[in-house]
Description:
13% of the residues lie in helices and 53% in strands. It has two helices and seven strands, in the order E-E-E-E-E-E-H-H-E. The protein is mainly beta. The radius of gyration is 13 Å and the shape is globular. The two termini are 20 Å apart. The protein has a four-stranded mixed sheet with strand order 3-2-1-7, with no helix packed on it. A three-stranded antiparallel sheet has the order 4-5-6. The longest helix is centred in the C-terminal third of the chain and has 7 residues, at 63-69. The chain has one domain (4-86).
Amino acid sequence: xxxxxxxxxxxxxxxxxxxxxxxxxxxxxxxxxxxxxxxxxxxxxxxxxxxxxxxxxxxxxxxxxxxxxxxxxxxxxxxxxxxxxxxxxx
Length: 90
C-alpha cells in the first residue's frame, strides 16, 4: 500500500492528502507554491515555500493540532506515512 502523502496549495488553502483523505487548511493568500520538502517528522513538516514578492522561505507545518481539531486520531492517521511529496499534478 502507498505510504506517501502529498501536499499542495490551491488559493488560500493547503491540501494535505493521504490515501482517501484530503485535509484542507487555510494558508496565506500570498503563497504561490510549495517548492521543496525539507523534512517530514511524524506530523511535522518543514517545507520551502514561495510567496508573492518574497524569496523562497522555510515554513513549518504541524499537522497534529489540525488533525485533532478535525477529530482524527492523529497517531493512527500519521503512523503509515513514511514520505511526503509536493503534488501540483491534480
